[in-house]
Amino acid sequence: MAMRLPVRPFTLTTRIRAVRFTSTASNLSDAVKKTITRDAGLPNPDPGADSPSAALVNDHAAYMVATYARPPPVFVQGEGSWLWDIENRKYLDFTAGIAVTSLGHGDAEFTRLLTQQAKTLMHASNLYYNPWTGALSKLLVEKTRSSGGMHDAARVFVCNSGSEANEAAVKFARKTGKVVDPAGGKTDVVSFSGAFHGRTMGALSATHNPKYQEPFAPMVPGFVEGRFNDVGGIRDLVTERTCGVIVEPIQGEGGVVAAEEGFLVALARRCREVRAVLIYDEIQCGMGRTGSLWAHGGLPRDAHPDVVTSAKALGNGFPVGAVVVNDFVGDKINVGDHGTTFGGNPLACRLAHYLVERLSDPVLQQGVLEKSELFRDGFARLKKRFPQLVTEVRGRGLILGLQLTEDPGAIVKAARERGLLVITAGTNTLRFVPSLVVTGEEIAQGLQILEDAIAATR
Ligand SMILES: Cc1ncc(COP(=O)(O)O)c(C=O)c1O
Asked: Record's Gene Ontology CC terms (predicted)?
């Protein structure tokens, strides 16, 4: 039987909504009957070929460009750290939509503001002022400075996604290079092995991974790859030709690998020497996930960047991105240099404004650090019980990686079929990026499911 929802029981309306949603699928009534007899051995066995989930997917999949390989469940509802699929299976969500829903699913105030602002004004275009684009920009600058992050944060460009934020950051670096060296010799953009900066052509050109780049070659010219955490290589890598350097303080997709403080300090010093723009991509690791507003918040001032990019948790699921710049960069960007139709719309900015307030709350951030310890204690137990499998625990706060010696695919499936959603990263890394409001009890429950899942795959 499916695990039932204890927090807010599926009301009749919800169940009807779920079934109605599936009613486009063929043979639904037969399929619904079959779910009642699902495997009793596992709480959430993946929906089978004759399930309502499969019927729905079969009806839709042919119309969707096949860019993702998805597991069988179809999610219809979320609350806090929990998701429900159309067959009323309940899952503990340690993925938060890949580090997005930091306040959890269905936060009441977020939802209220969304509705209120949608009724008031959603979009009028960047051709005009509105109250929220500027309010978000001001708040981001103030909170960045007061949180110990980028001390000279000055202005913000608001966009719609992480890739777009990095795209803008790279363009700002190129423009800065043009002003610093009008002869046009300052155009190189440096990024690092293991990095992930997005899928648009500029962001992709900074993501030196053949898996992502090869199908779309040639890349944008002028992108140079360096070795992550290689202090010795910085001098030859970052030169007078460099206009910008982009780096994740903690690589997410790359396997939850933190940049060493000495590396970032050396990188920042070298950028200042050659007047290159230093960009910290905090799209995954920022916004409170490490227990401070920005992952770079604990670094000495001389390791602070000229630009920070944000997205993901900035919108808790609503698409929004932001590029925070200092005056070295901001002074060089003029009217007409860059733009966006949707970016900075009043709805996205009203929501992001609320999220920046919530995610910069010291109480929430202290909770992140405490919850991180609960995960780490659990991971230590797993490492002890499965020494051949678990080799290392990485990351900070609630962006954590468990390095395994094998492909985690079977464990991810076994966890899902026991009611826990986890994702992977890098090479054989299990990645944990739950909502920041996940409770201690939920962490304990999830870790127990993970342990059972690992044991079942041995
Ligand atoms: C560090 C980092 N940068 C950029 C991106 C791209 O963001 P988006 O998918 O919103 O374009 C991601 C997405 O995973 C990311 O983790």
From this structure: mitochondrial matrix
Of ligand 1's listed atoms, the one at least distance from the Cα of 198 is: 6
What does residue 386 show for φ and ψ, rounded to 5 degrees?
A: -125, 65
Q: Where in the chain is the domain with CATH 3.90.1150.10?
A: 75-106+364-456
**What DSSP letter does each residue of 346-397 carry, written as one string?**
HHHHHHHHHHHHHHT-HHHHHHHHHHHHHHHHHHHHHHHH-TTTEEEEEEET
Classify each residue of 120-149 as buried b or exposed e, where b means 16 or more C-beta atoms within 10 Å of its C-beta: eeeeeebeeebebbebbbebbbebbeebbb
| Gap from CA of 65 to ligand 1 centroid (Å) | 20
Enumerate residues lining ligand 1, CB below 6 A: 98, 161-163, 166, 196-198, 248, 252-253, 281, 283-284, 311
What residues of the chain score a pLDDT lower than 50? 1-29, 31-37
pLDDT score for 162: 98
**The domain 75-106+364-456: what is its CATH number?**
3.90.1150.10
How many Å apart are CA 409 and CA 451, to the nearest integer? 15
Residues of the chain with CATH 3.40.640.10: 121-360
| Cα 368-101-57 angle, rounded to 5 deg | 140
- What is the reported pLDDT for 41? 81
pTM to 2 decimals?
0.93
Q: Report CA(32)–ligand 1 centroid distance (Å).
A: 37
Spatial contact of 141 and 155, defined as CB atoms under 8 Å apart: yes
d(CA 193, CA 225): 7
Backbone angles phi, psi at 383, to 5 degrees: -65, -35
Q: What spacing in Å lies between the alpha carbon of 341 and ligand 1's midpoint?
A: 20
pLDDT for the residue 21: 39
Pocket test for ligand 1, best of 196, 280, 285 (most atoms within 8 A of CB): 196
CATH 1.10.10.10 assigned to 121-360? no
Question: What gap in Å lies between CA 456 and CA 218, rounded to an integer?
Answer: 45
CB atoms within 10 A of CB 358: 20
Question: What pLDDT digit, counting tens, does each position of 181-215 carry?
Answer: 999 999 999 999 999 999 999 999 999 999 999 99
